[in-house]
Amino acid sequence: MKIDIDLVPACQIKGWWPQLANIKSLPIFVDELKKEGALIMLQTDVDDDHKSFSKQRISAIKAEKKLMKSIPQIAKDAYTVSKVICNNRICPSFCSPFEMEVSDVITSYMLKTCMLHVLSSKHEFSTKLYDRTEVIAKPYSDDKLYDFIIQIFYKLLQFSVEENLSAIIFPELNVFTFNIKFLNTKFNCAMRCLFIKMILSIIGEPQTFGDIDTEDWFGSDSNMSETEMLEIDNSNLEETSIATA
């Protein structure tokens, strides 16, 4: 399994958290986190003219690490399996209008965020860490693990349709805007829906594809060149079900 590591410079501001930070509701001790403060990550990108530019993003990586330690083991394992599934050795690439792989539109951070949203919907964030020893250590069946994995992908599908995946600690931030390959939001979300439906079909959840909107994939916010703005054959996405072996 390929592991990607992103190394970027960051600046930690002691005791500072933006007003939109949602750390008080986390099921962990937040006093130390409040003192540590948030991180400002400095990332470099390249524009259409091949000129580099810098962009900044708020990060709560330390809070997220502590949060991951507090969640049930089934959630951690479901997240791990979902990452393994989102691999081109399992999920096929798609070639309309050009070849794309699942990793182009679905990142590990998106999967982790959706896993945490699933936990939140189950009210698993309602108790503090010191009340959760039994929950964390409790064994689970394969069926429950499978169900959790399915919920992660359905949650990601829901947010992709809405074109917005709110971060857990910074709910006003859209995770879909982090480190994306193409700037066209509709295109990214449509392709993401396509890959999610393929994955769900592969793991035993038959899907239809006729509801994926391909009419406005290339809008004014796209950074694609004219040669890439090819007409997409919508007939390739006719309503159909993928049979799984």
Structure in a nutshell:
With 245 residues, this protein is mainly alpha-helical. The protein contains seven helices and three strands, in the order βαββαααααα.
Number of strands: 3
- What are the secondary-structure elements, in order, as H or E? EHEEHHHHHH
Strand content: 5-15%
Helix content: 25-40%
Q: Radius of gyration over alpha carbons?
A: 19 Å
- Quote the distance from N terminus to C terminus: 24 Å
Label the overall shape: globular
What is the average of the pLDDT values?
78
Q: Quaternary state, please?
A: single chain
Low-pLDDT stretches: 126-134, 218-245
Overall SS class: mainly alpha
Strand order of the largest sheet: 1-2-3
The biggest sheet, with number of strands, parallel, antiparallel or mixed sense and barrel status, is: 3 strands, antiparallel
| Number of contiguous helices | 7
